[in-house]
Design brief:
By secondary structure, the protein is α/β, with parallel strands linked by helices. 50% of the residues lie in helices and 14% in strands. Among the domains are: 93 residues, no CATH class; 97 residues, Elongation Factor Tu (Ef-tu), domain 3; 126 residues, 3-Layer(aba) Sandwich (Rossmann fold), CATH 3.40.50; 41 residues, no CATH class; 110 residues. α1 crosses α13 and α11 packs across α12. One of its GO terms (molecular function) is glutamate dehydrogenase (NAD+) activity.
């Protein structure tokens, strides 16, 4: 076993050791011991001297359970597949330890980059991306810099990938230059992360910095950053070393000076600071340092770990200590996706928060389980990976690809299924079998025989499997894509081997080997083209006959431009450009005429569908994955997608789900608030309190079990907080009202939100404190989270819980400046009313208070005493009309609008039935309604139908009187003379233009504000028509006049040239005979199809004839253009006169509309 394989095996031993301390599916653990996929590529690079050199490279994707794989690409002569696999494994664990949603990946090329020029290095980098283009991607595999690669190389790779994808894709690679989307703080991220770990060691062990001596082995990029930060922080660095030497100084080394010397004189240089197995069983016993922080990957062997543990040394493992690099890479990926970039200070603050948080988690696990920190770190990572596996659907993800039928197993391994005597094995064919086909031509008889003996079937062509395109099933499409990708990889490998063999054989003049190498190159090219063609067919979805036609044309060198050349002349001698412009103009005119009618017809169709009674939005199915008992009467239910993967909806912290529950004969719908954070993409949780009189909660708490499925409607609700609304928030929860607050708190802490959070809980006693342990743990971990608890039924204050109910004094004590905070309240109505009154007295503005009820606000209906006769409720006399369903009824006493709608069979979606969810929102067309609770309405909903629509309409109408006045003044001479004494016509024209634009804009805003009046619709349409006509008349017509003048001047020049050419042709019989085929109309029509530029030098007579034909075509084109423009100008001049009449009709309609708007506006104010 090589040293590189030892590295991977060493990593797997640590995985097995950590698995003893976590609960993880054995199959999932076995899956982690093998990389998900490995690519071995050959990269041909043209060197500066013209020679071709083949480089080998690897890319490994270890595991993508928690997200796309992530890992660096290194250029080094000692790169080996075993090393790359180990690094990819470590990256999986490192991402899990840091809590970022990535899996592990790694790549490398066997090359000494110092031997290459900059141009050769760029060609190598781009060539590597070309080979990996189908393997990497922003959501699949994200490379980054590593040993001997830097931001410049990452920039080349990102640019090459973007070129291949035909779109800029900055999030495919991290570690890029800042101008290309790189993140600030990336250069020193690895060293800074290790520095933050050392700071946590200091906090846990109460060091005195001046007494701590530091030695840095590996004074490279990360080592220098760690040393610089520790030196700046007052630590005494006594030793530094790299691959060429070391420096020791008892009173401390000047680190900035040492860094300058290294960069200028390279006295401590050429460091390969990612060196593995530096601390081994041979030298571990000589180490006296009590604390070791591993900034490199895998520097300590398993044997050395045991020795260091016996010596009592604390080792901060590599997967934790150097996680700063991948964490900031995640920040860069996030910034690329959002298109918003952070400051360096913000990057460093978030990095410090994550490193401190994860160090504390690993340290606590190490202390609790009495294990070393390395094992604790791996256990911490496995725990998170296990949670992701569980959320995806337990172990089915891992073993689904391993279940092979006995028949398929027997087909691939015949020797293992038959008996010893008669079964076909590796030795030969089965008894009685005839000659078997091998791989076919191209590889020779010897290879055919070898393949026959191995029992391998001939590779099937992919083309027959593509005959069903574009109707190929999704499952079969995925299988073909994998097979095609395998063909491309195999072809690339054969190409690399063939080029390498050809290079060696050419140097030795071995012609037989050359022939064998070229055969291998042809075979590799054939495999690659086969896979590539299948990929293109699958991606583009083209029918096989179209693909075959393109192949046939390419093989016969048939150029598509032949068809283009034949179509240069169209009907009536129009050029293609002229004809296309005319077609576009006609199509535009037809589209504008029919657009309005189509839109209205489509809108009527949609409204008809929506007006159907009981039209309830369809839900989606979810599966119950886990049920947790929070308190005696509260349970948390975890929901996952029925078929694994991400949950089928997105939500915001504080929203709720509406469940359709099979209770009784008719299903009921109930809403429950989501308590999990939207940062968890693979599951969603709701927390439900069992109510004796609640049919929905009884069903969820008593009858529901793991594995059941429920139908839910997409999340809704406006009681949300995402961190963007304010930089400080107070969350006040009463009882089970803690659920939306928990969702908000989990989301904010998962995002490392820097704002201030005050979490205030009011409950009976500790037994009724939901999420108590998790809230305490979050408060200990996050400095910006402050938890305050008031309990009404405890005898004395315990664990910091205050005795009694929530009071104004407690709020002022816990949050002194509460008036400047955004406040969210959730709980029973009585609790919320009391809390809002307290907040009002504390000076909190009403707009800063947001509430959600947990409990009914409906007044209880009066009970009928025994012996009394129950009377039917009397009608109130108020008549309700539901416009869409065209149903009417009288409202009964103590009846809500929703109940009235249900009584007459009008289907309206609902959830809470008390006005808090906003699902049953309907528009009031006329009349008045009252609402006891209007939390479900947004401010714009409450303002609907306000006077602003009338303001816009009146103002717009007034402005549009200015163009009307301009038209009257312009056409009345006496009035014009009077007005121009005070205002010039040029000024009036400017007013006419500006008012003519602004007025219609306000009218359109007005119509959009309340777009339901027939007059308003007609007004808007005619306004647009008048404005467009005015602009065309002012600007387009002047342009037409100028173009007509230019075309007439061009026509004069063409006619002069035509007359001169006619004289030359008329005096030459040969030239006249040449023109005869073009004299008739149909011959003239077809002339353009056959008249082409001569391939040889024509005679003078023929040249003059061709010139004359061209001039005649040009004259006809120009004359047609002039006639078309003049006709358009004439007709549009008539339209402009008609548009004046439309303007007067428009203002008449506007007068009616505005008067009605003012009238109804005054009624609204009353």
């Amino acid at each position: 076993m090589s040293d590189h394989d030892d590295i991977f095996e060493n990593a797997l031993l640590r995985l097995d050791r950590a698995a003893q301390f976590v609960q993880i599916d054995p199959e999932a653990l076995e899956r982690l011991k093998h990389p998900k996929s490995v690519v071995h590529v050959s990269i041909p690079v043209r060197m500066d001297d013209g020679s071709l050199r083949i480089f080998e490279g690897y890319r490994v994707r270890h595991d993508d359970t928690r997200g796309p794989t992530k890992g660096g690409i290194r250029f080094h002569p000692q790169v080996h597949l075993g090393e790359v696999k180990a690094l990819a494994f470590w990256m999986t664990c490192k991402c899990a330890v840091a809590g970022i949603p990535f899996g592990g990946g790694k790549g490398g090329i066997i090359v000494n980059p110092k031997e290459l020029s900059r141009m050769e290095l760029e060609r190598l980098s781009r060539g590597f991306v070309q080979q990996l283009a189908d393997f990497i991607g922003p959501d699949t595999d994200i490379p980054a810099p590593d040993v001997y690669t830097n931001s410049m190389i990452m920039g080349w790779m990102m640019d090459e990938y973007s070129t291949i994808q035909r779109q800029r894709t900055p999030d495919v690679i991290t570690g890029k230059p800042i101008p290309l989307g790189g993140s600030l703080g990336r250069d020193d991220a690895t060293g800074r992360g290790a520095y933050y770990c050392i700071k946590e060691l200091e906090r846990f062990n109460n060091w005195t910095r001046g007494n701590v001596r530091v030695a840095v082995q590996g004074f490279g990029n990360a080592g220098q950053h760690v040393a610089r930060l520790l030196h700046k922080d007052g630590y005494r660095c006594v030793a530094i070393s790299d691959s060429k030497g070391a420096i020791y100084r008892e009173d401390g080394i000047d680190i900035p000076r040492a860094s300058e010397l290294k960069q200028s004189q390279t006295s401590i240089s050429n460091v390969y600071d990612e060196r593995k197995n530096q601390i081994t069983g041979e030298n571990a016993s000589r180490i006296t340092a009590p604390y070791i922080v591993e900034v490199a990957n895998g520097p300590t062997t398993t044997e050395a770990d045991n020795i260091l543990k016996e010596l009592g040394a604390t080792v901060v493992p590599d997967i934790l200590a150097n996680a700063g690099g991948v964490t900031v890479s995640y920040f860069e990926w996030t910034q690329n996706r959002a298109g918003y970039y952070w400051s360096e200070k913000k990057v460093q603050e978030r990095l410090q928060r994550i490193m401190a948080q994860e160090f504390e988690a690993v340290h606590d696990l190490s202390v609790e389980a009495e294990i070393d920190m390395r094992t604790a770190a791996y256990a911490h990572a496995l725990n998170r990976i296990g949670e992701a596996v569980e959320s995806q659907g337990t172990s089915r993800y891992f073993n689904s690809a391993m279940k092979v039928s006995q028949e398929e197993h027997a087909q691939h391994h015949p020797g293992q299924t038959g008996d010893a005597k008669g079964g076909p094995g590796m030795g030969g064919p089965p008894e009685g079998a005839g000659p078997q086909n091998g791989m076919g031509g191209g590889m020779g008889g010897m290879m055919d025989g070898m393949m026959e003996k191995m029992g391998a079937p001939k590779p099937k062509d992919l083309y027959p499997s593509l005959m069903e395109l574009p109707d190929l099933p999704i499952e079969r499409r995925g299988e073909l894509e994998q097979e095609a990708h395998g063909r491309m990889i195999a072809g690339t490998r054969l190409l690399g081997e063939g080029f390498e063999e050809l290079s060696r054989s050419a140097a030795g003049d071995d012609f037989a080997a050359m022939q064998s190498a070229t055969a291998k190159i042809r075979e590799g090219l054939s495999d690659f083209e086969s896979g590539l063609a299948a990929h293109r067919a699958l991606r583009e979805g083209k029918a096989p006959r179209d693909v075959a036609l393109q192949w046939f044309k390419r093989e016969l060198n048939i150029d598509d431009s032949v068809n283009v050349a034949r179509s240069q002349a169209l009907l009536w001698g129009m050029s293609p450009f002229h004809a296309s412009v005319m077609v576009v103009l006609i199509a535009f005119a037809v589209a504008m005429i029919w657009m309005y009618f189509f839109k209205m017809r489509r809108a009527a169709s949609l409204l008809e569908k929506l007006s159907t009674p009981n039209a309830i939005a369809e839900g989606v199915g979810v599966q119950i994955a886990k049920i947790t008992q929070e308190t005696a009467d509260v349970k948390t239910i975890r929901l996952v997608a029925c078929h694994g993967g991400r949950i089928p909806f997105n939500y915001l912290p504080g929203q709720f789900l509406t469940f359709t529950l099979p209770v009784g004969e008719k299903p009921i719908r109930r809403s429950y608030t989501i308590s999990s954070a939207p940062t968890q993409a693979y599951y969603c949780e709701v927390t439900v309190k069992r109510e004796d009189k609640g049919a929905g909660s009884r069903y969820l708490c008593d009858e529901l079990k793991v594995g059941d499925t429920l139908e839910v409607k997409a999340p809704s609700g406006r009681f949300t907080f995402t961190g963007e609304e304010s930089d400080r928030v107070v969350l006040i929860a009463g009882g089970v009202g803690i659920t939306p607050m928990m969702s908000v708190t989990r989301a904010l802490t998962d995002m490392c939100w820097p704002g201030e959070i005050h979490f205030i809980v009011a409950c009976r006693d500790p037994k009724h404190f939901i999420f108590e342990s998790e809230i305490k743990r979050l408060e200990e971990r996050y400095d910006n989270l402050h938890v305050h608890v008031a309990m009404s039924r405890i005898d004395q204050e315990i664990n910091g819980y205050r005795k009694g109910r929530l009071t104004k004094e407690l709020l002022a004590e816990w949050v002194p400046d509460i008036a400047s905070h955004r406040v969210h309240i959730c709980g029973a109505p009585a609790m919320m009313d009391a809390t809002k009154a307290m907040l009002s007295k504390l000076g909190v503005p009403v707009e800063n208070i947001h509430t959600e009820n947990f409990g009914s606000t409906q007044k209880p209906k009066a009970k009928v005493a025994k012996g009394q006769e129950a009377h039917e409720p009397k009608a109130t006399g108020a008549k309700i009309t539901f416009a869409k369903s065209d149903k009417s009824t009288e409202l009964l006493a103590d009846e809500t609008l929703l109940e009235a709608a249900e009584r007459v069979g009008v289907g309206i979606d609902y959830s809470c039935r008390v006005g808090t969810c906003g699902i049953c929102l309907a528009k009031l067309l006329s009349g008045d309604v009252t609402m006891e609770v209007d939390d479900g309405l947004e401010p714009e909903d409450r303002k609907a139908g306000s006077f602003w629509g009338g303001v816009f309409g009146v103002t717009g109408a007034a402005l549009m009187l200015v163009p009307l006045a301009y038209l009257i003044v312009k056409r009345n001479k006496k009035l014009k003379q009077t007005v121009t004494k005070h205002v010039s016509m040029r000024t009036l024209l400017a007013w006419h233009i500006y008012a003519g634009v602004l007025g219609p804009i306000l009218v359109i805003i007005h119509s959009g504000h309340k777009y339901e009046s027939v007059v308003g619709i007609a007004l808007t349409a005619m306004t647009l028509l008048v404005v467009v006509s005015g602009f065309i008349g002012r600007y387009l017509m002047s342009g037409f006049a100028k173009e007509i003048r230019e075309r007439k001047a061009m026509l004069t020049e063409l006619q002069t040239a035509y007359d001169e050419a006619s004289v030359a042709v008329g005096s030459n019989p040969e030239a006249a005979n040449t023109l005869r085929p073009f004299s008739g109309f149909f011959s003239r029509l077809m002339a353009g199809f056959f008249l082409s530029e001569p391939t040889t030098e024509p005679s003078v007579a023929k040249a003059n004839s061709i010139t004359l034909v061209r001039l005649a075509e040009s004259i006809a084109d120009v004359e047609y253009a002039i006639r078309t423009h003049e006709d358009f100008k004439t007709w549009f001049g008539k339209w402009l006169k008609f548009h004046i009449a439309i303007s007067f009709i428009l203002y008449g309609l506007m007068f009616i509309h505005v008067n009605y708007a003012v009238y109804f506006g005054l009624r609204w104010f009353e």
